[in-house]
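Page 37, continued from 36.
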């Protein structure tokens, strides 16, 4: 890799870290799902068994323990609390670090698969993507899942290229870490396992013993509950906990003003009326927070950079056409990774939110990076530069409501480009 590429990668990574760390302690209290995740991370830090108990009382008013998701992300957050103290910066610091780290990982994945031009465009796209920014500044588990997924795909490609067993092992470890952060990691496991097995057959390197590797994510998942086991819980307790998780995840009676499915807005739940507002078009964000600062207000609205979403949708269509024509195995992998993190949610038995689309965004960024690289290599390369420039400008335009930066209270109206955003 050239010095210019190293310089670009260092710059864009540091920039991404700075915008995530700036005012990270604001608001200086729980907001949105931090009412679940922070108190649970604190419970883990204090080795409190109640944090794993579906029937435990709320630790504070208007909070509840998050027993609905695997522990790994919250254990990382608990480690930050133990190291840096129990305050908003410590709660959110791991998310900021992991969120910034996604940018160089996207660069590396695109570089391995499609070369330096696509890598530069892909990293530029995701570095200026607002939903990724918002989810990097809150104590939740989605950003951890996303990083582990992207890392697993990097080692999948390395294994496919070099056929070194160690890369297959590392791939499976990252998949295990993804599943141990959020069940959605199972979708990545399905794509990667299928891809690797197909690749092994194609290159005549398939060994039945390699299938044993795919029990490793299950072992990692069980290990993520290490504190649970050390506290003296039994396997019956573990099964009971997971029955409660499964029961809750299948509830159709949940309602939320910003509740969606991948295709529809469902503010009154899945049994209520619905309006078409697909995730892929950035049609409905989520209000995370409103904080008063005298005559100003800090709004945090989890919304994607609309130009990344809209241009990205066009890029995905372009890649689908390219795959139909050329049957590229690499293009297939990017498309499969992109679609698998939102299409299955169409059949979800409960309401969701736009941030469930987050794991698709690195692969959307690579799809758009590929399309921009194609333009760059043609006669009208200025168009590729113009697209990136407008994405960057749009990122900074929406930065205040992605980060809670104080603005005039009535200024929020100018950000509501679509009626469905309100």
């Amino acid at each position: 890799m050239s010095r210019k590429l190293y310089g670009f990668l260092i710059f864009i990574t540091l920039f991404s870290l700075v915008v995530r760390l700036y005012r990270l302690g604001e608001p200086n209290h729980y907001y949105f799902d931090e009412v679940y995740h922070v108190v649970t991370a604190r419970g883990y830090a204090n080795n409190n068994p109640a944090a794993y108990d579906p029937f435990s009382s709320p630790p504070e008013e208007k909070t509840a323990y998050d027993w609905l998701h695997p522990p790994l992300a919250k254990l990382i957050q608990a480690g930050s609390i133990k190291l840096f103290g129990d305050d908003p910066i410590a709660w959110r610091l791991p998310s900021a670090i992991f969120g910034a780290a996604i940018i160089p990982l996207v660069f590396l994945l695109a570089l391995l698969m499609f070369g330096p031009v696509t890598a530069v465009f892909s990293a530029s796209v995701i570095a200026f993507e607002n939903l990724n920014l918002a989810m990097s500044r809150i104590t939740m588990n989605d950003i951890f899942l996303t990083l582990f997924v992207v890392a697993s795909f990097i080692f999948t490609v390395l294994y496919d290229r070099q056929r070194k067993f160690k890369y297959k092992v590392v791939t499976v470890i990252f998949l295990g870490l993804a599943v141990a952060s959020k069940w959605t990691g199972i979708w990545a496991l399905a794509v990667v396992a299928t891809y690797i097995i197909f690749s092994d057959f194609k290159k005549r390197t398939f060994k039945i013993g390699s299938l044993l590797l795919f029990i490793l994510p299950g072992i990692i998942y069980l290990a993520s509950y290490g504190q649970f086991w050390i506290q003296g819980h039994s396997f019956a307790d573990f099964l009971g906990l997971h029955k409660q998780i499964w029961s809750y995840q299948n509830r159709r009676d949940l309602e939320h003003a910003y509740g969606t499915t991948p295709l529809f807005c469902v503010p009154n739940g899945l049994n209520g009326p619905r309006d078409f507002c697909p995730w892929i078009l950035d049609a409905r964000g989520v209000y995370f927070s409103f904080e008063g600062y005298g005559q100003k207000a800090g709004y945090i609205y989890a919304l994607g950079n609309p130009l990344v979403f809209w241009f990205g949708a066009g890029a995905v269509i372009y890649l689908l056409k390219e795959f139909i024509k050329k049957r590229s195995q690499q293009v297939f992998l990017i498309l499969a990774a992109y679609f698998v993190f939102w299409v299955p949610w169409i059949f979800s038995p409960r309401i969701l939110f736009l941030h469930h689309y987050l794991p698709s965004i690195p692969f959307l960024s690579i799809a758009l990076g590929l399309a921009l690289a194609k333009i760059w290599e043609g006669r009208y390369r200025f168009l590729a530069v113009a697209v990136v420039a407008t994405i960057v400008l749009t990122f900074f335009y929406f930065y205040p409501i992605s980060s809670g930066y104080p603005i005039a209270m009535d200024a929020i109206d100018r950000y509501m480009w679509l009626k469905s955003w309100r």
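Residues 3-421 form one domain. Flag for discussion at group meeting. The chain has a mean pLDDT of 95.
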